Amino acid sequence: MHTLKRNSLITGALGGALLLLSPLSQASWVSGACPSGLSVPCVEQDYNGTVYHFNGGHEDDWHPDANGDDFSFSGSGTIQCPSQTLDCSVNLDAQVKKFQDDQDVWRIGFKVTDASVSGGLLCSLADLSGMPWYLADSSTHDNFGNDDGVVWPGPIQGNIGTLEVLLAGSSVASNIHAHGVSYDNVDTFSLTGDLYNNGTDTAQGCSLSGDLTLDSPVNYLTVF
After folding, report:
1. How far apart are CA 197 and CA 27, in angstroms?
2. Which residue of 35, 110, 122, 170 lies most exposed, with the fewest beta carbons within 10 A?
3. 92-110: per-residue pLDDT in tens?
């Protein structure tokens, strides 16, 4: 009986440890929709038909999806430069967080951890680099980093950087950022702006445009 009891305790401890190490636990998502009437932002997702959220206690932590994988966005995009125009399939992997800046203003941050293009010979030779990229407000033109984000409540739109565009391994645009980036607060990122040299608001000569939509199993990602 002592052996059985000891084995039961071990099994219970292992089960608890596995729960703590589950993707949902690691990603800091809580089952259920965002509560109503909050004075702080709450982020909610539908993962394969089940709703999760995070609000209090998760400030300044980057969040992948409920399974612990980065959110994936994909769609058609155009990279246009004076010497070349590429119409490609584009995929971005990203994480989200909420935080307060040094003025105690709530902000929403998006961090792009990976990006790729495909869809033909030239697209296969192209590459998007410089990760991670960070979404910042429209007044930011340099030093994009972990403390950047957009004011909440408000539209999730601004500039994103720092980017590099490669073609056949050679840089065609580096140390740049994109204007006109927006998220519809449901499932779609839109890239509609020119690329700019970091530190300036002078167009560099290239542009990046397209609409990228959340891939399954995530059906929506919304900030309340």
Report:
1. 35
2. 170
3. 999 999 999 999 999 999 9
pLDDT tens per residue across span 61-103: 999 999 999 999 999 999 888 878 889 999 999 999 999 999 9
Closest listed residue to residue 220, CA positions, set 117, 57, 66: 66
Kindly compute the dihedral angle of the four CA atoms of residues 24, 108, 56, 217, in this order, to the nearest 10 degrees. -20
DSSP string for residues in 50-82: EEEEEBTB-TT--B--TTSSPEEEEEEEEEEET
- The length of the chain, given as a count of residues: 224
The reported pTM is 0.86
Amino acid code (one letter) for 47: Y
DSSP 36-53: SS-SS--EEEEETTEEEE
Distance separating alpha carbons of residues 140 and 148, to the nearest angstrom: 9
For residue 132, cis peptide bond before it (omega within 30 degrees of 0): yes
> How many other C-beta atoms lie within 10 A of the C-beta of residue 198?
17
Contact 98, 187 (CB under 8 A): no
Between CA 3 and CA 87 the distance in angstroms is: 66
pLDDT at residue 66, as a whole number: 96
Q: Are 192 and 171 in contact (CB under 8 A)?
A: no
